[in-house]
Write a structure and sequence with these properties.
Layout: H1 9-12, E1 24-27, H2 38-46, E2 50-54, H3 69-82, E3 85-90, H4 104-122, E4 127-131, H5 142-161, E5 165-169, H6 174-184, E6 190-195, H7 196-201, H8 206-213, E7 218-223, H9 238-248, E8 254-256, H10 269-283
Parallel strand pairs: 1-2, 1-8, 2-3, 3-4, 4-5, 5-6, 6-7, 7-8
Helix pairs in contact: 2-3, 4-5, 8-9
Length: 289
């Protein structure tokens, strides 16, 4: 993956860290936005170096929001203006799609994924979050996981063409995700997009899971509160999480994703408050050698 644009530790408000510890990004939904050019300036205002954009939804002509050329140009202009990096895209509308059975829904899924992958190349990012929180949840049943494997096999050539890694984010156990990878032949460009809040709420031992997965199996991490809307006031064990990250040498982006609590009058406030919580986590990590 490409090297990120990094803010200094002074800008982020904590000392004693290396530059690699300041790779903080925000999912634009934390501002109440989906595929909005305004998210770039808001990311800078909230003190993050990178942003994850939502690719939107298909219109009546099966054109995905992020595919609009004027919109893409607007994103690129704002990136240059504000010095913010688009670190990844999220094909969030895939949560409504059934990819494991033939039919109209699966065809819509192919359109969403292909256009999202094309947009990744245009917007100069090499990671696409592929979520499985709806009909395609593959935790249980042979038919579902087999169908998901076939769908991913169909889109892998497009991901390779555009130089994009697929990040699998799912509420299923990490063991099940590893089974998915094994069935696919463990391609280098299909990795796990780990979400601390989601997996904690699902009962997974996130500290052990991160240790078992290792740095090479994780493409990015969503930092999401569990039991609160603010990371830092939730039930995450900061020191254990920092230790797990140090154990695997995690050196990629930390992406804040909101869990409710948006203030429409001050849409960057939630992201700012949570950034402070993530900074606290990073302050517990051991300095890189």
């Amino acid at each position: 993956m490409k090297s990120p644009i990094l803010f200094t530790a002074v800008f982020l408000g904590f000392a004693g860290t290396t530059l690699s510890d300041t790779m903080l990004a925000v999912m634009e939904t934390a501002f109440g936005n989906r595929c909005a050019v305004e998210s770039i300036a808001m990311t800078r205002e909230a003190g993050y170096a990178g942003v994850q954009l939502h690719t939107g939804s298909l219109d009546e002509n099966s054109v995905l929001t992020i595919s609009d050329k004027e919109l893409q140009a607007g994103f690129l202009a704002e990136v240059k203006k504000h010095g913010v990096e688009i670190i990844s895209l999220c094909a969030g509308s895939m949560n409504k799609i059934n990819v494991w059975q033939p039919g109209e829904s699966r065809e819509q899924g192919l359109a969403i994924m292909k256009q999202s992958l094309e947009a990744c190349e245009v917007l100069d990012c090499d990671l696409l979050l592929f979520p499985f929180f709806g009909a395609s949840n593959f935790q249980e049943g042979e038919e579902k996981i087999a169908g998901v494997v076939e769908f991913i096999r169909e889109i892998l050539p497009f991901a390779e063409k555009h130089g994009v890694t697929l990040g699998i984010e799912s509420p299923v156990t990490y063991e099940r995700v590893l089974e998915l990878f094994d069935r696919l032949g463990n391609p280098d460009n299909v990795l796990m997009y780990y979400d601390t809040g989601n997996m904690l709420r699902g009962g997974e031992d996130i500290y052990q899971a991160i240790s078992d997965l290792g740095n090479d199996r994780i493409c990015e991490i969503h930092i999401k509160p569990q039991g609160d809307i603010h990371f830092g006031k939730d039930e995450t064990d900061y020191q254990k999480l920092a230790d797990s990250l140090d154990e695997i040498g995690y050196n990629k982006w930390f992406v804040f994703e909101a869990r409710g609590g948006l203030d429409k009058e001050n849409p960057t406030a939630l992201a700012i408050e949570n950034r402070k919580g993530i900074e606290r986590l990073l302050s517990l990590r051991k300095p890189s050698e």
